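Support case: user asked for a sample of complex input and structure output to validate their parser. Sending the pair below.
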Amino acid sequence: MHTSLALLLELGVILLVLSGLGTLARRFGVPPIPLYLLAGLALGEGGFAPVPAAAQFVEAGAAIGVVLLLLTLGLEFSTAEFAHSVRRHVPSALFDMVVNAAPGAVAGWLLGLDGIGILALAGATWISSSGIVARLLSDLRRLGNRETPAVLSILVLEDFAMAAYLPVLAVLASGGEWWEAVIGVVVALTAVAAAFVVSHRWSHHINRFLAHPDDEQLMLRVLGTTLVVAALAEFVDASAAVGAFLVGLTLTGAAADRARAVLAPLRDLFAAAFFLAIGLAVSPVELVPVLPAAFALAAVGVVTKIATGWLAAGRDGAGRRGKLRAGTALIARGEFSIVIIGLVGAGHAVLGPLVTAYVLILATTGPLIARWAGTARAVVQR
Amino acid sequence: MCHGVPLRVWIVHTEYPNWTDKHLPTVNFRPIGQRPLVVADLSRHHGWMDVNEVLLPGVGLRYEFTNADGQRIGIVARRTGDFELVDYPRSDPDEGRPLFRLTAQEADAVAEILGAPRIAERFADLTREVPGLSAGQIAVPAGSPFAGGSLGQSRARTRTGASIVAIVRGETVIASPSPAEVIQADDVLVVIGTHEGIAAVREIFRG
């Protein structure tokens, strides 16, 4: 029983520390993700307080964390909102993809990464953290602003693009040939389309099975189904994350609302484990040499996201200050950049530390810059 | 210009001076998370009011309108059921000034105070699940077998699946009538259900 004692103690202390860090982060108006990463760095090999017993749980929890992050993302998704975003903001989303993925790709090429590494780094710099940004807009009381729908539309389209991007990356990272990647993508896209059809046509059947009136049953059924589908997706090399996203897509209406509420605490726990695990996998010593590259990428990432927000908000007729607010709100990168690294991490020694540092920088400064932009009246007077 | 969906919202008041059939609130049934809107008017007159509806993907909806004083007001309806009210200063119409937030429960209380017919809420809950649902109005003819009887006696819901959510009687509206409510000739029943269900209710009251 000795190991179990160590596990309980270590895990308990870790959760308490995370809680403390989370409170601290909220006080300074930054999201907890970077602090979770830092905690992981401190606890891992080469950190100052290794936790061998809890590490096992964290590793296992991390896999579930990714699945739950993507499941809740799928649950948030609504066809009406997607259609609306497509109608209004496809040009903004394309611009977003090009200008934000390019710096990552160029940096990957300069660092001598292979094709997969370049693709992964491009994805990591492209995608904003919808979790952080949505929370930020609400915290800064900007839901009433004119630029806000544009920002949210970009997030919806980015998240949806991930459904195509992640399987491509997963197949390539698993060492597949290009044609296997193509098959993987086709399978993934077919699955997305099928999920849409299913959620449109037969959602009440699925909802009837999954949405048991009892909360416990609901949680067990949704979680069980998601894990099975995630495993199947992993089996065909399409990434567990994508499978989970699809399950989220097929649940709609009140069932989705309830599932979100029931799964939220689980998601928070396992997502924290996921961020910890990423920190654990990176040794602080590895972080130092990549810092210059990470800062340079982050600086470019700030500028390109501001440009994206500027364009998108401009399409909705916002003035200069609104455009600046939109751009700065989009800066934060977070969970998705980390998910991408989780997919390809092994075998790319430089990628893990680089993106961890990149996310640490932007998840912290992004919200601070966004906050500042809301008060920066003098800077951009017409 | 802000890109939203312009809505025409029929403003109703609990006293309907010139109520006619065609003035019944038209409720648009739209997809998930979008609640139909019936707004109560405290200034005791009625007419069309232009409300702009803006989708906030992942968050909810925002309704914007200009009040009689020329103030631009925004109401953010979040998916969680919470509300946030903002107003827009004339100097910068892009940035809403947060006024206050309401939890779902507080919003219910405020809606009660403002006298908004609770029908809208009920419609929203029912139609969120079932996109095929629609609303209809049925005038109770003088010779109806249920004129003078209670709503419960007609067993309309048991027989048709459609619900009578309001009774319009002359200048008053009985929202969410109980089964004991006595139906009179010339009442107008607001029914929601499937098309067939509504037609069946019409048959029942025609006798």
